[in-house]
């Protein structure tokens, strides 16, 4: 009876541990936060961003904000002209990366974007890369993993 429980426990560990997906929360600029006169491209250079990761913009509000823009808006430091996308202004804005591709963010206050308060990243599909030192890790279980854990749990209960 005890050997069945041990086998069930080992099975559960084998099913769950290797398939845990890790999402990363990136603090933009690390301890520097979101501000002018900082090289965000250098900050992002060695990082790999994946769908499911989160960007966290920390800054004093006002005066700063975060606008999601397109490539032209990024290059020219121009905020969107439509009202369907208001700026983020909380001072602790979290943006979940939901799709792959290039993402561009700027601060639209005065000349802050021209002073470097802008970020361009590329979001990749697939499992997240190992976390950089500034990232916070979290566990995300797939439906398959939860289903398999439930099956093993029923197996343990029946065997007991």
Please give the structural blueprint:
Layout: H1 2-16, E1 21-27, H2 40-45, E2 49-50, E3 54-58, E4 67-69, H3 71-76, E5 92-96, E6 101-106, E7 118-124, E8 136-140, H4 143-159
Parallel strand pairs: 1-3, 2-7
Antiparallel strand pairs: 1-8, 3-5, 4-6, 6-7
Helix pairs in contact: 1-4
Provide the residue-averaged pLDDT.
80
CATH class of the largest domain: Mainly Beta
Q: Give the domain tally.
A: 2
The CATH architecture designation of the largest domain is Sandwich
Helix vs. strand class? alpha/beta
Quaternary form: single chain
Outline the low-pLDDT stretches. Answer: 7-20, 134-139
Largest sheet: 4 strands, mixed
**How many beta-strand elements?**
8
Spatial arrangement of strands, main beta sheet: 5-3-1-8
* Element string (H = helix, E = strand): HEHEEEHEEEEH
CATH homologous superfamily name of the largest domain? Cupredoxins -  blue copper proteins
CATH topology title of the largest domain: Immunoglobulin-like
InterPro entries: Cupredoxin (IPR008972), Phytocyanin-like (IPR039391), Phytocyanin_dom (IPR003245)
Membrane topology: Single-pass type I membrane protein
GO biological process, one term: response to symbiotic fungus
Organism: Prunus persica
């Amino acid at each position: 009876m005890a050997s069945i429980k041990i086998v069930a426990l080992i099975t559960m560990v084998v099913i769950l541990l290797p398939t845990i997906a890790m999402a990363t929360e990136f603090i933009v600029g690390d301890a520097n936060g979101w501000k002018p006169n900082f090289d965000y491209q250098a900050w992002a250079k060695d990082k790999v961003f994946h769908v499911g990761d989160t960007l966290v913009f920390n800054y004093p509000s006002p005066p700063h904000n975060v606008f999601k823009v397109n490539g032209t808006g990024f290059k020219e430091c121009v905020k969107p002209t439509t009202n369907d996308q208001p700026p983020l202004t909380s001072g602790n804005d979290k943006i979940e990366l939901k799709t792959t591709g290039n993402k561009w963010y700027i601060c639209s206050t005065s000349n802050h974007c021209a002073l470097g308060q802008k970020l361009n990243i590329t979001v990749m599909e697939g499992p997240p890369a190992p976390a950089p030192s500034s990232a916070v890790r979290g566990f995300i279980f797939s439906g398959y993993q939860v289903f398999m854990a439930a099956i093993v749990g029923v197996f343990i209960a029946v065997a007991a």
